[in-house]
TrEMBL record:
<dbReference type="InterPro" id="IPR042099">
    <property type="entry name" value="ANL_N_sf"/>
</dbReference>
<keyword id="KW-0436">Ligase</keyword>
<feature type="domain" description="AMP-dependent synthetase/ligase">
    <location>
        <begin position="129"/>
        <end position="275"/>
    </location>
</feature>
<dbReference type="InterPro" id="IPR000873">
    <property type="entry name" value="AMP-dep_synth/lig_dom"/>
</dbReference>
<dbReference type="Pfam" id="PF00501">
    <property type="entry name" value="AMP-binding"/>
</dbReference>
<dbReference type="GO" id="GO:0016874">
    <property type="term" value="F:ligase activity"/>
</dbReference>
<dbReference type="InterPro" id="IPR045851">
    <property type="entry name" value="AMP-bd_C_sf"/>
</dbReference>
<protein>
    <submittedName>
        <fullName>Phenylacetate-CoA ligase</fullName>
    </submittedName>
</protein>
Length: 409
C-alpha cells in the first residue's frame, strides 16, 4: 500500500490527541477572529474543550441556516475570519450560499484524496467540475497543485470538445461527476475516438451507482469517489480497497441524531457534523444535512482513521442534484413568481442512473405558455434543467414536502 503521508497510518490515540489540541486552538481563534463565533461561543472556554464530550456540548451551525445568516450579515454571515477583499476567490453556490477561498494553495485539502485515487506528481488531470460560480473545479485545482499535477480545465458540457481534448492531450485521469464521465466515454466510443490514456477517475458531486462504476471499470477506468462540500472541502474518500470512505485527516467528524446535536452510537445512521481547522473560514460543529454512519474497525488498506459508509441521503429536504444543492427556499421563490400555481413539489428520480428533476404543479387550469415559463423559472432558480408536470387540485400529498427524492441506487 502507498500513503500520502505518515498521518494516515498513525495510532488512533495519537490522532485523537492531535485533533483535540487543534480543536482548542481553533475555538480560541474563531472566538477572536470571527464575528459569528464571538457570539456563538461567548460562554465557551476553549481551553476546557479537549474531549469528544466537550465537543458535543458546543452549539451546531447548520448549513441550511447559512442563507439567512448571510442575508443578515453579508456576505458570509460573520463566520469568516478572512475579509472578503483578502480572499483568493469568492464563490456562490445554489441558495445562494457564498463561500471564500483562503490563502492556502490546497484550501479544501484535496491532495490527499487525489493521491488515494491513484494520481501522482507529473500527471495531467482532465477537470470536468464547473468553473462557473461554484468552487467545484477549484477544489481539485488546489489539490492538484499541491500534489504536483497539471490540470486541463474542461469544465462542464461541450462533450465533443472534451473528447477531442482527451484524444490530443492524453490525460492520465478525470475528475468530475460520474454521470458526465459516462457521457464522455459513450461519445468517444460512438465516434471511435481513442481516450485510452484515461486510467483513473476521482468523482464526486453526485452518487456513483454500482452499474456506472462497473461499466467504466470494464473500459479500463478505475473510479473512486470522495465526499466533499463547498464549505468544508474534503470530508472522506475511497481508497484502493472497497471498504467505505476514510475520513480526511485534518478535520473532526461526528455523526449526530438528525435535528439534534447528540452523537449517535457507532454504526447508527445520523447527520454528518464537521469541525474544520481552516483559519480563514473556521467551521465549528457544522451540520452538513447529509446522512451517513461510521463503519467498525480499521480499513483493510491500512489507514487508521474512522470510515464512513458513504452518503446515505439528506437529513433535511435540501437535495443534491447533478452535483448542485437545491434548497426548499429556491422552490418557494419559484412559487412566488407563479401565484397561479396552488402548490409545488420538486420530485427527483434517476432513470438510467441519470438524475432527473420534475416540478409538479397543482392548479385547476393551465394557461397558455405557463409550462415554458415554469421550465425557465426552474432553470433560473436552480441552475439546472428540469421538466414540469401539472396535477389537478388535491393531487399532491399533504405532507409538507417541497422536495421529494425518489432516486434508487
Amino acid at each position: 500500500m502507498s500513503y500520502y503521508d505518515p498521518l494516515e497510518t498513525r495510532d488512533p490515540a495519537a490522532r485523537e490527541a492531535d485533533l483535540m489540541d487543534k480543536l482548542r486552538s481553533q475555538l480560541a481563534h474563531a472566538k477572536r477572529a470571527s464575528a459569528y463565533y464571538a457570539q456563538a461561543l461567548a460562554d465557551i472556554d476553549p481551553a476546557a474543550c479537549g474531549s469528544r464530550q466537550a465537543l458535543a456540548a458546543l452549539p451546531l451551525t447548520r448549513k441550511r441556516d447559512l442563507i439567512d445568516l448571510q442575508k443578515a450579515t453579508p456576505p458570509f454571515g460573520g463566520l469568516n475570519a478572512l475579509a472578503k477583499g483578502e480572499a483568493r476567490r469568492v464563490f456562490a453556490s445554489p441558495g445562494p450560499i457564498y463561500e471564500l477561498q483562503g490563502g492556502e494553495a490546497d484550501h479544501w485539502r484535496m491532495a490527499r484524496v487525489l493521491y488515494a485515487a491513484g494520481f501522482r506528481r507529473g500527471e495531467l488531470i482532465h477537470n470536468c467540475f464547473s468553473y462557473h460560480f461554484t468552487p467545484g473545479a477549484f477544489l481539485m485545482e488546489g489539490g492538484a497543485r499541491k500534489l504536483g499535477c497539471s490540470v486541463f480545465p474542461g469544465g462542464v458540457g461541450q462533450t465533443e470538445q472534451q473528447v477531442q481534448a482527451m484524444v490530443d492531450l492524453r490525460p492520465d485521469g478525470y475528475v468530475g461527476t460520474p454521470s458526465f464521465l459516462k457521457i464522455i466515454v459513450d461519445k468517444a466510443e460512438e465516434s471511435g475516438a481513442d481516450i485510452s490514456s484515461l486510467k483513473k477517475a476521482l468523482v464526486s458531486g453526485e452518487a456513483l451507482p454500482g452499474v456506472t462504476r462497473a461499466w467504466l471499470g470494464e473500459r479500463g477506468i478505475a473510479v473512486r469517489q470522495c465526499y466533499a462540500t463547498a464549505d468544508i472541502g474534503a470530508i472522506a474518500y475511497e481508497t484502493e480497497v472497497d471498504a467505505g470512505m476514510v475520513v480526511e485527516e485534518d478535520l473532526l467528524l461526528e455523526i449526530v441524531r438528525p435535528g439534534t446535536g447528540d452523537p449517535v452510537p457507532p454504526g447508527e445512521v445520523g447527520e454528518v457534523v464537521v469541525t474544520t481547522f481552516n483559519g480563514d473560514y473556521p467551521l465549528i460543529r457544522f451540520a452538513t444535512g447529509d446522512l451517513s454512519a461510521l463503519l467498525p474497525g480499521i480499513s483493510p488498506c491500512g489507514r487508521t482513521n474512522a470510515r464512513l459508509r458513504g452518503w446515505l441521503g439528506r437529513a433535511d429536504q435540501t437535495t443534491k442534484i447533478k452535483g448542485m444543492f437545491v434548497h426548499p427556499e429556491q422552490i418557494a421563490e419559484i412559487a412566488r413568481r407563479h401565484p397561479e400555481v396552488a402548490r409545488m413539489r420538486l420530485v427527483v428520480d434517476n432513470p438510467d442512473a441519470q438524475d432527473r428533476m420534475t416540478l409538479h404543479c397543482e392548479l385547476a387550469g393551465v394557461p397558455d405558455g405557463l409550462q415554458a415559463r415554469l421550465v425557465d423559472s426552474l432553470r433560473e432558480g436552480t441552475k439546472l434543467r428540469g421538466e414540469v408536470q401539472f396535477v389537478a387540485p388535491g393531487g399532491l400529498p399533504n405532507d409538507g414536502k417541497v422536495i421529494e427524492d425518489k432516486r434508487v441506487y
